[in-house]
Design brief:
Elements: H1 2-32, H2 35-45, H3 49-52, H4 55-69, H5 72-77, H6 81-95, H7 102-125, H8 129-145, H9 151-163, H10 167-180, H11 186-197, H12 201-214, H13 219-231, H14 235-248, H15 253-266, H16 269-282, H17 287-309, H18 316-342, H19 352-367, H20 371-382
């Protein structure tokens, strides 16, 4: 019996010594730049509970895999290197009771964040949203170890999960953002959209209604709720909602603007015009309203043009009156579009949306008989 105990103790001592040798070999190989060998040695050491109970083992492991992640050739061989490094440093912080290496480990974790950001951009370029979500989540975890709640990473993770089809994870992330007040009120639209895609229209509209109660002047929330009804071709509900909102807040230009869009969907052109005019009495420089009203007049002019062409040739006076009416509509379109051009928002300048405005102005100038202005816009578009 005594001999057996002695042998067991001897075997235990040999195992401990083996683990220590592996840790030492890993340290030396890492120091000499042989990171592949260092990884092999440190993983051998990880099989022994004695080694895994020491903070230095995890610190060495973190350093080894961080070095591998920094080596382009080895990184392909160890695709999970950054995650292993992160987990190792997290374990080190847990075991380093006196914080002797806290500053060193935090610096290493900050470096891991930098590398994760690089990876996330590559994933996004390749539209690998699932991998990007995992990367953003890791970045956020590291920030948490620094005592920072990184809501931007929660949102980015949710957004990428949404893109890659992990709706449950996306919904959880968006909900957290809403709770923390990050990217609201927009985040409510994302939450609503998930419910809408799942076929739960009542839930989708309720989320938007609750959000609108908190942010009553946000036009995007309003448009999102109206779009739910319009997509379902529930035009009467959309109109009813907007009319009640304009009555409750008659000086909210956005309500009148979205009501105008809704009237357009309903084919109520006279009401659409009045809604846009009402919005402009509140804010004469609203670009979106000016553009839409200009487009409305232009389209009315085109409709009138068609009617003019249907007038028999012998009815010259009637035809001339009709053309004059069409020209007036085109002139009104020019007036609105020119004001829109003068009040183009910075985020629209240089975009396809601004080019759309220039094209509309060019065509309106031509129809209104303003040949020089037409040529000017044509030259501008040719650049």
């Amino acid at each position: 019996m005594k001999k057996t105990v002695f042998l067991s103790i001897a075997f235990f001592g040999a195992t401990t010594a083996f683990a220590q040798v592996s840790v030492t070999n890993a340290f030396n190989a890492n120091k000499s730049g042989d990171f592949r060998a260092a990884a092999t040695y440190i993983e051998e050491a990880m099989k022994d509970p004695k080694a895994t109970g020491k903070e230095k083992t995890w610190r060495y492991r973190g350093e080894i895999y961080l070095n591998i992640a920094n080596d382009p050739a080895l990184k392909a061989e160890f695709p999970n290197a950054l995650n292993l490094a992160k987990e190792s440093y997290f374990k080190n912080l847990e075991l380093d009771k006196y914080g002797d290496y806290k500053a060193e480990v935090q610096a290493a974790l900050a470096k891991i964040q930098e590398l994760l950001f690089v990876d996330s951009n590559k994933y996004l370029d390749n539209k690998d949203f699932c991998s990007a979500a995992l990367t953003y989540s890791s970045i956020g975890e590291i920030s948490g170890k620094f005592g920072v709640l990184d809501t931007s990473m929660i949102f980015n993770t949710a957004l990428c999960n949404d893109q890659c089809g992990k709706t449950a994870e996306a919904l959880a992330g968006y909900t957290k953002c809403a709770e923390y007040g990050y990217n609201v009120p927009d985040v409510y639209r994302y939450i609503s959209d998930i419910h809408l895609k799942a076929g739960d229209k009542p839930k989708a509209t309720q989320v938007l209604a609750d959000a609108r109660a908190k942010y009553p002047k946000d036009s995007e929330l309003l448009r999102a709720e109206v779009n739910v009804y319009l997509t379902a071709e529930e035009y009467a509900k959309a109109e009813e909602l907007l009319v009640s909102l304009t009555q409750a807040e008659p000086n909210n230009e956005m309500f009148w603007y979205v009501l105008g869009i809704t009237y357009d969907k309903l084919g109520k052109k006279a009401d659409e015009e009045e809604a846009y005019k009402k919005a402009l009495t509140i804010n004469p420089k609203n670009y979106d309203v000016l553009f839409n009203l200009g487009a409305l007049y232009f389209n009315q002019g085109l409709d009138r043009d068609i009617q003019c062409n249907e007038i028999p040739p012998r009815e010259t006076a009637k035809y001339n009156d009709c053309v004059a009416e069409a020209t007036k509509l085109f002139t009104k379109a020019v007036e609105q579009l020119e004001v829109a051009k003068a009040n183009t928002p910075e985020n629209v300048k240089g975009t396809s949306e601004e080019r759309q405005l220039f094209t509309a102005l060019k065509d309106a100038y031509l129809k209104a008989g303003r040949t020089e202005d037409y040529e000017r816009m044509k030259a501008l578009l040719a650049k």
